[in-house]
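User: I need a structural model of Sec1 family domain containing 2 from Seriola dumerili for a docking pre-check later this week. Nothing fancy, just the predicted structure tokens so I can convert them on my end. Input:
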Amino acid sequence: MLTAEDFTRFPLQMWEKVLSKVKKAVVFMDDKCAEALHWNGGTAALLEAGARNLKQFSSFEACGANEPKAVFVVSTLLKGRTVDIIKDIISLSHFQYCVVFTTVAHSVHLLANNVTAEMEGNPVFEQFEEKLCEWMGNMNYTAEVMHVPLVFAPVSQQLLLTPTYAHLFPLLSPDLETLNAKRPEKKRFGSLIDIDVHSVPAELQIEIRSLTSALNAMFEATGTREESFAVGPMSRIIAGELANHPQAKNRRKTAPNKASIIFVDRTMDLTGAVGHHGDNLAEKILTVLKPLPGHVTDVQVDMLELTSLQRTPHSQNTLAPGCLAQNQSPVAQTLWEAMLTSKHKEAVMEVRRQLVEAASKEKLPIKMSMGRVTPEQLCSYMQLFRSSWGALESHCGVLQLGLAAAQTLRHPDLPRWDSCLAFERLLLQALGDSDFLTVLKQLLPLMKPRGGGDGSASRSREDECGPDELILLLVYLYSLADEAQPAHPNAEEDEEEELEKLERELIGALTFVITRETELSPLLQKLTGCANPEELTTERAHSSVEDMFETLRGLSHTRDHLKQLRSVYTASDGVHQATYRPFLRQILEEVFHPERVECPDIEHMSGGLTDLLKTGFSMFMKVSRPHPSDNLVLLLFLVGGVTPSELRLVKEVVTTHKPGMQVLVLSTRLLRPTDVPELLFTTQRLAPDIAV
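Assistant: Understood. Predicted structure tokens for Sec1 family domain containing 2:
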């Protein structure tokens, strides 16, 4: 019988194909594949399989005369810059045997080369093998080129991420304008829902087809016939491409297993993605700790407290950081699951329990204490392990997760989390009582530089909002703009003018806040294109904020095409406060409805002609159409990212409504709140970089 575990095992099975080729080889790997490997056994898996070394995929790397074998693992098409780098490395080395793995299927290579005809074999890969031999300097040397979908990272038992597609994000209203600008007036799209895969730029087509090819490979390996459903414009395109995949049609005829997959656009619910209502430890860890270099998901954990080194300005460069991916330790994996899918308090207590258990096993002199868990208490437990190298090695996974928790709990940025939560709650209540203009005005007094614009220290407190938090609050509020009380019908024109005037004030105030920063956060660097405040001019900051507001204005219309699930807001009824109602919860409640009600917004995409015939017959007879709850395995694919809080929500809803069903979440990335403005305002959504 098919289980969710069959899907979480698939990435490891794909990496086995790479491991079978790395014996006595130097491996060159790009960042996206390295991140996928990080969650699939890491460098240790390569070295245990016999690899001699792992190097960055860069023109500045090469091998010596005593290293005749190379394996290249890349997440891009074999063209352009990728080919140049492979050629550079081979030219500077003395290889006699080269193997190249690409995560992009041969059919997508044909598409990228504008070949539409069906072709025997893999001519693009065969031609590239000849080039490799040419670069090695001898046509009798060995070269192999193959496609393996190394795109999935099993971050937990409940979550598969696709680091290769971390920047794939649903299209927004500015993208619609860009597409329409290149089309004749009579052929312009009325809304995002009208866009099909052939209407988007070639780079995005390649990214979508590469993703659907990887999903098809996963269903092939697990012997699964999928029923696809979609909510949102980008999800419709992806689900449609999966349904029309040439190999998928043959697979569906013979596959012994069945599963449902629902694709959901992240833009259906941006409120949940930027909000701070998630009572979740993992979400806070991902937010306050620095990301691992080259990684989208994992973070750096400072390991200094497990050593006798003194903290100095250079000590961080002395010691390699720890991380959250603990593939080698079942106990650490269980703890990570708890941190991801439990409430904050429960997760912190589980961290303490695991540390106490580990110390007791090693007979370390631990002092038990009950009551509230503090970061100091956790650190005191972990410092006991310094005295025993064996204990440190045995429990390294749990200790890294414990350090991540302690460093987050005492992080100076953490108080801002509660400040944002308090503002969000105030805004939620105000939306039920006032029009959008009135609620938006409440943000204006917050738009002040740190330390006060007049030299006073009015905003120097740790819990005060900086520019990042102000941008998050703007996204939060604009995503809920349609939930506000409507303006008086006679005052609509006046309100439109007032809103424009207020937005100009907010743009000016936020520009001033950004230009007064003494250090630019990663988000501000991406937003403005400047690495430090010295480069940043007022004009540049103002232009960036203006562009940001162009996108903000369209955020409240992302659910306009839906018939039923149009709101994520429940107004106050005088007894209960106004609340945010997660879109994902609404989807799952529809799927698990005991009467198997058909939701018009969850569109079935696998049917093709059969579905059209059923639609026609349903006009005069009762026809049973596929429903997401028909199968015991349900995959939820969130296009654009998922938050740890949503993972907990999925677990809770399934346990309550349908405990017998197995649900696996797939997504392009694990979101921290500040990822969302980056994806909204700085990502080239129409031209992702897989095609480079």
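Before docking, keep this in mind: Residues 290-410 form one domain.
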